[in-house]
TrEMBL record:
Main subcellular localisation: membrane
Protein name: OmpA family protein
Top-level taxon in the UniProt lineage: Bacteria
Lipid metabolism recorded as keyword: no
Family: Belongs to the MotB family.
Keyword terms of this UniProt record: Cell membrane, Membrane, Transmembrane, Transmembrane helix
Record organism: Vreelandella neptunia
Matches recorded under PANTHER family: LIPOPROTEIN YIAD-RELATED (PTHR30329:SF21), STATOR ELEMENT OF FLAGELLAR MOTOR COMPLEX (PTHR30329)
Record CDD domains: OmpA_C-like (cd07185)
Pfam families named among the record's database cross-references: MotB_plug, OmpA
Location relative to the cell: Cell membrane
Coiled coil: none
Domain OmpA-like: residue ranges: 101-221
Length: 223
């Protein structure tokens, strides 16, 4: 039998309702991750024990420690695994690099590329695109050039809406890469208008963030 103090220490406070059980989910996630880790380590250890087994275990532990936690939890390696390191040294003002589920995204502020309401690359814009040539040439997967605008409507003879403007900007980037000798057979140009905002369009800063061109790099999947 447990004494009163011990029972009290093991009890969950009465004030802990359904909204306070987030700790339990996190705790179970950690347990699942640890179990997966040790099962993987054991599966990589050769039978028979001894020094060889100990050495193999240590090598396995080192290899597993370098894997992303999300991959350990699911047992599935992302298809774009290993893309990020080749962009680590990319240092172009106004160009950011992020890695998501689909691949690596190179995001460019359109103020670096185009004048307001235009789809002709400025001299600065051409320079930015050309500085990306080296890393794009070394990448062997599919490249999607995607134009995005804010929610402010545009209506001109050339661009009746933001759909035409965003598409024309994406095409301008692809065409300039082609003019510099880049093989565009692995590329496509897409316009999303204002349908995929990064920030709310209610503020000037938000609208500026949404005006962008993104190069989404997807690693080819071997069949």
């Amino acid at each position: 039998m447990l004494d009163r103090d011990t029972r009290h220490a093991l009890e969950i406070p009465a004030s802990a309702g359904e909204g306070d059980e987030g700790w339990l989910t996190s705790y179970l996630d950690v347990l699942t991750l640890l179990i997966t880790l040790f099962v993987l380590l054991l599966s990589l250890t050769p039978p028979g024990g001894g020094e060889a087994a100990d050495t193999a275990f240590m090598r396995s532990a080192s290899a597993v420690s370098s894997l992303p936690l999300a991959s350990l939890a699911t047992g599935i390696q992302p298809r774009h695994e290993g893309l990020q390191p080749q962009f680590a040294g990319l240092n172009i003002p106004g160009v950011s690099v992020s890695q998501g589920r689909e691949g690596v995204t190179l995001r460019i502020d359109t103020s670096l590329l185009f004048a307001s309401g235009q789809a002709v690359l400025t001299s600065q814009g051409r320079s930015v695109v050309e500085r990306l040539m080296d890393v794009l040439t070394r990448f062997d997967g599919q490249i999607s050039v995607e134009g995005h605008t804010d929610s402010v409507p545009i209506s001109t003879d050339r661009f009746p809406s933001n759909w035409e403007l965003s598409s024309a900007r994406a095409i301008a980037v692809v065409r300039h890469l082609e003019s510099q000798g880049f093989n565009i057979s692995r590329m496509r140009a897409v316009g999303y208008a204002d349908t995929q905002p990064m920030e709310p369009n209610a503020t000037a800063d938000g609208r500026a963030a949404n005006r962008r061109v993104e190069l989404l790099l997807r690693q080819q999947v071997e069949g």
